From TrEMBL:
Residues 1-20, 26-51 are annotated as: Disordered. Residues 1-13 have a biased composition (Basic and acidic residues). It comes from the Bacteria. This is dUTPase. Pfam families: DUF4193 (PF13834). It comes from Geodermatophilus telluris.
Length: 100
């Protein structure tokens, strides 16, 4: 009698555990891919769109007077010295922090 009562309880618990584990894994994968999309793709796309909500960043770049030996990083929009230039992609310049 004790074994009869015990067996179904264990099976139930096992199934429940597996289900929630799979669910957790799926949710974690979704969350990860979602955050990667926002960080990389969304940011790069908005750089190309003049109508996007980038007014703050563009304003910062224009207000700062840029010297001849300085460049504006295309990613963090900071004006930095030429010696901090680490990479170029076409017209875009990247500082050491952003190229790393
Ligand atoms: Zn940068």
């Amino acid at each position: 009698m004790a074994t009869d009562y015990d067996a179904p309880r264990r099976n139930e618990a096992d199934e429940l555990g597996e289900d929630s584990l799979e669910e957790l894994k799926a949710r974690r994968a979704e969350a990860q891919s979602a955050s990667v999309d926002v960080d990389e793709t969304d940011f790069n796309e908005s750089l190309e769109l003049p109508g996007a909500d980038l007014s703050n960043e563009e304003l910062t770049v224009r207000v700062l007077p840029k010297q001849e030996d300085e460049f504006t990083c295309s990613r963090c929009f900071l004006v930095q010295h030429r010696s901090r230039l680490a990479a170029t992609k076409g017209d875009q310049l990247y500082c050491r922090d952003c190229a790393a």
